[in-house]
Design a protein that fits this description.
The protein is an alpha+beta fold. The chain folds into three domains: 113 residues, no CATH class; 135 residues, Butyryl-CoA Dehydrogenase, subunit A, domain 2, CATH 2.40.110.20; 248 residues, Up-down Bundle (Butyryl-CoA Dehydrogenase, subunit A, domain 3), CATH 1.20.140. The chain contains 20 helices and eleven strands. This is DNA alkylation response protein.
Length: 548
């Protein structure tokens, strides 16, 4: 029956594109907050990210999740996790291209105002947003390795021991004494089964030893990337919850007590290992002051939350790219999908969501480069809440663009859909983050002032933006029942920040459509409902990524 199987009107594979330099919104954000040399330095990474080879790495790493080996053939406890070889290819590419801890070393070396390292965190963010579109799962250990450095600096002697390995552009997998490895990977163990986000309910105890180390006994309900070289974990001292650095291998070369009980069977993020771990006299070293473990580990969490925003922006962008690629090559009812008015409305709305998420994510990275701690404290929390919360709906709408084809695993959209909720849960789910926005507002006048100054940069550019800022101010001024309204406040704050960025930096049709839908309309509650007159064709054309 060969005649019945002629393939027509199907979409060619999406390969040969550049998700970094070929993404106008991302490339412009890089130029805006860094320079052309920074964007050029990511050219090879963009080429790899758009290649067929990298797509296969991601597919196979996802379809062959890690396996836990608790014992060897002789009955010895080994607690090792095995990964598919292509997971290591993904990790190696990320680390060697400076997406892990390298920016902290690059920034320290940037003593001259024109040195490349002065944009180290923007460069890393742009690369991370582009590269993780290949496969999101391996981003977790990359993120942890990046985020652990500022927290570890609270203990200078530990930073001196581990920072060179954490900031190296070398990937080495396997258990070995950390100072003997060229490159290190970090993980984190905060939550326990009885407490979850309430880490003050943690039951793990730490007892001081004569040599200055501590013996930790207890469990961790979620320990990220259990084959990492070093972890930050929380445990109780008499003074309260404290933070400890726990290596897998001790300085004398012996393995630390680190019993991996099982790997989590997760909805998505399947190429990455998440685990439950038991400590029994496990050796750790104090990071920061006794009883001040939460502020110490928050140094790490503040950075991982930025990557939640970047990861969600990457997920949104990956879904948008698939949708536009499909619509450009698929015809129905006598015309290409991309030329049909209602499909243009949907695609343009998806593109607005992507550009707004990208602009805000890279702005956060620029704040790290600039040392804008006050801005980050509030803007980072609001962005984490809003961008991550928007991701599942965007991916679902992109899946509908592909129709039944999008519901099939081969398309890649189901993998994105399963991944999409993660960043809204990881490092504080929606309620936790929304309440954290309120804490930042209440405890730091500097944070509110810094965000207000950012919003003022766009005042007067659009009436709908000005009205939205006034509504936000009224919400903040009404103290009654504020916790009940925390999600509303966090969302309004994030969309106002996005509006400010797009009004100042995006093309007129993008800023106009965003203000009309997100600030002056229904907030983009249902995508594909942009008002008549929106420049949808130009917005879609801008969002397309050309293939080679």
């Amino acid at each position: 029956m060969p005649a019945t199987h002629q393939v027509t009107n199907q979409v060619p594979p999406l390969v040969g594109h550049d998700p970094i330099g070929g993404d106008a919104a991302l490339a412009e954000a890089c130029l805006r907050h860094a320079d052309a040399a920074t964007l050029e330095s990511l050219g090879e990474l963009g080429r790899i990210a758009g290649s067929e080879e990298a797509r296969e790495w991601g597919r196979l790493a996802n379809e062959n999740p890690p396996r836990l080996r608790t014992h060897d053939r002789y009955g010895h406890r080994i607690d090792e996790v095995e990964f598919h070889p292509h997971w290591h290819d993904l990790m190696r590419t990320a680390v060697e291209n400076g997406l892990a801890g390298a920016p902290w070393a690059d920034a320290q070396q940037a003593t001259h105002p024109t040195a490349p390292g002065r944009h180290a965190h923007v460069r890393r963010a742009v690369g991370y947003l582009g590269w993780t579109q290949v496969e999101m799962g391996h981003g977790c250990p990359v993120t942890m390795t990046y985020a652990v450095v500022p927290a570890l600096r609270r203990a200078p002697e530990l930073a001196a021991r581990y920072e060179a390995g954490l900031t190296a552009r070398a990937y080495q997998f396997g258990l070995a004494e950390p100072t003997g490895k060229a490159g290190l990977v970090a993980g984190m163990g905060m939550t326990e089964k009885q407490g979850g986000s309430d880490v003050r309910a943690n039951a793990t105890r730490a007892v001081a030893r004569a040599d200055g180390s501590y013996a930790l006994t207890g469990h961790k309900w979620f320990t990220s990337a259990p084959m990492s070289d070093l972890f930050l974990v929380l445990a109780q001292l008499d003074e309260g919850v404290s933070c400890f650095a726990v290596p897998r291998v001790l300085p004398d070369g012996d393995r630390n007590v680190f019993h991996v009980q099982r790997l989590k069977d997760k909805l998505g993020d399947r190429s990455n290992a998440s685990s439950e771990v038991e400590f029994e006299g496990t050796t750790g070293w104090l990071v920061g002051e006794p009883g001040r473990g939460v502020p110490a580990i928050i140094e790490m969490v503040n950075m991982t939350r930025i990557d939640c925003v970047l990861g969600s922006a990457a997920t949104i962008r990956a879904a948008l790219t698939q949708a536009i690629h499909h619509a450009r090559h698929r015809s129905a009812f006598g015309a290409r999908l991309v030329d049909q008015p209602l499909m243009q409305n949907v695609l343009a709305d998806l593109a607005l969501e992507s550009e707004a998420a990208t602009a805000l994510a890279i702005r956060l990275a620029a704040a790290v480069d600039a040392g804008e701690a006050a801005f980050l404290r509030l803007a980072g929390a609001a962005a984490k809440y809003w961008v991550c919360k928007r991701s599942p709906g965007v991916v679902a709408e992109a899946m509908e663009v592909l129709g039944g084809n999008g519901y099939v695993e081969d398309s890649g959209l189901p993998r994105l859909y399963r991944q999409a909720p993660l960043n809204s849960i990881w490092e504080g789910s929606g309620n936790v983050i929304a309440l954290d926005v309120l804490r930042a507002l209440e405890r730091s006048g500097e944070s509110l002032a810094a965000v207000t100054a950012e919003l003022e940069l766009a005042r007067g550019a659009d009436r709908r933006f000005d009205d939205a800022v006034e509504r936000l101010s009224a919400e903040l001024g009404n103290r009654e029942g504020l916790p009940f309204r925390a999600r509303r406040v966090a969302g309004q704050l994030a969309t106002c920040l996005q509006g400010s960025l797009l009004l100042r930096h995006a093309p007129a049709e993008v800023a106009e459509a965003f203000c009309a839908s997100r600030l002056g309309g229904d907030g983009g509650a249902v995508l594909g409902t942009l008002p008549a007159g929106a420049g949808v064709a130009r917005i879609v054309e801008r969002a397309g990524v050309a293939t080679r």
